[in-house]
Amino acid sequence: MYLKSSLILLFVATMMTVNSLSCKKEEDATPQQPGPGTDGNGSGTLNLPATLYDYVNTRNNMPPWLLDFMRANPQLDNTPTGNPITNEGATLGRVLFYDKALSVNNTIACASCHHQANAFSDIVAQSKGFDGKVTRRNSMPVVNTRFFKDKTMFWDFRAADIETQTLMPILDHIEMGMPDLATLENKLKGITYYPALFKAAFGTTDVTSDKIGKALSQFLRSIVSFNSKYDKGVQNNFANFTSAELEGLHTMQHDFCTECHSDFSTSAFGQKSSFLIVDNTGVNTGLGSNNGLEENYTDKGYGEITHQPQDQGTFKIPSLRNVALTAPYMHDGRFATLEQVLEHYASGIKANPALGTQMRVGGIPLSATQKSNIIAFLKTLTDEELVKDVKYSDPFKK
Ligand code: HEC
Ligand code: HEC
Predict the structure, then answer these.
(1) Which of 127, 241, 243, 329 lies at a C-alpha separation of 20 to 30 Å from 190?
(2) CA distance 186 to 73
(3) Ligand 2 in contact with 291 (CB < 6 A)?
């Protein structure tokens, strides 16, 4: 009898311990228990500052000459009236961007393919998704995405705007693999820190996919990068430049690189180039551009969207800002180094119906010195602050 009741007691006590353990586990919720990490990014214990970082005014970090230009041309900023940046909204966006819980098996965050150290791009030609399959194209650096007046996102412009784009990787069957938006909403609702973050950002604890897309977009639009040697150079007449760097800039302007890689209005020879992403309408055939990588493109880029012959093999023209950090290069990551990119422009340009008018079949004549000068110049476009800026960093401490 004595033995029996003590066994029962022991049983009850054990059950209580098991119960309290499992409750604790639920409180800690999924993202703190991510699946096998792939790259060191992502979830752990959430660690946000007591006073929120300033995301609202990051645009004001632009150098004065560029800020004036932007103020005079407000259409260059794609921030919609319905989703202005708030510090609370961008803070939520930062958490979402680094949270592996957004993938179906807790293995991949946006940041797994968009690393801060690489100006928010990836170091491989094709990035690994949630179950090990790789993306079709090279990951893009998500910096200054706010300054693209056409608003459309991806190499082929298939997303209408940033708000639409941000939900697409989550549902992508290679990238993050969530079956549908309802599953995503329900999953995030169950994670302890989200209701409060949504309330701060949008006034209620409701977790909706619309708000997830908006918060991610606010965070992305807050990521601006204008703290480079080049930006300082424009302001001091390039007194801080070596002669190789300055020669490189002049060669790029002379050989029309800047016509495609900077907005037309600021890129005329001798003027200040923004080196922001541009829509190429009016310069070449359509929105994108073709730099002669192939005679026949297997990946038709924008041509897959429009089905027009003049758009076959045209792609969004990448910004050259931080290009020294974003290798490998091109839509398929075919070039590992800037030297290989320059060799393409000097000797590898192939004829095809969509070739940009600035391109010369066979190659743009560039001497070895000119090529190395251009590379020296491209390195002045690196923003060393961006890669260490804590407000864009992983908020989960491991
Ligand atoms: C598995 C890797 C991977 C993950 C995860 C991923 N991306 Fe990407 N991202 C890419 C690739 C690859 C592209 C280019 C795809 C294309 O153009 O077809 C891209 C393109 C983009 C672009 C377009 C940029 C431009 O200039 O047009 C944005 C914005 C973006 N990603 C944001 C995000 C956000 C937000 C998340 C998380 C919700 C995310 N990505 C998750 C690989 C990834
Ligand atoms: C006709 C427009 C055009 C001109 C002129 C042009 N480019 Fe490009 N550039 C592009 C396009 C489009 C891409 C992306 C092509 C792709 O991925 O298929 C690109 C890609 C690049 C890249 C790789 C960027 C990345 O992140 O992957 C670099 C670097 C580059 N160009 C430098 C230059 C230099 C230097 C010149 C002048 C010698 C130049 N470009 C002239 C349109 C142009």
Answers:
(1) 127
(2) 41
(3) yes
318 Cβ closer than 6 Å to some ligand 2 atom: yes
Alpha carbon distances (Å) from 37 to 41, 54, 112, 239, 306: 8, 30, 10, 46, 39
Banded pLDDT at 8 (limits 50, 70, 90): very low
Which residues contact ligand 1 via a Cβ below 6 A?
102, 108, 110, 112-114, 127, 129, 135, 137, 139-140, 142, 145, 153-156, 162, 165-166, 169-170, 175-176, 216, 220, 316
Selection from 373, 371, 353, 372 nearest residue 361 by Cα: 353
Based on C-alpha coordinates, what's the Rg of the chain? 24
Residues 6+ apart with CB under 8 A from 349: 291, 292, 355, 359, 360, 361, 362, 363, 364
pLDDT value, residue 167: 97
Determine if the peptide bond prior to 328 is cis (ω within 30°): yes
Ligand nearest to the CA of 164: 1
Q: Which residue's CA lies nearest to atom 38 of ligand 2? A: 257
Q: Are 390 and 53 in contact (CB under 8 A)?
A: yes
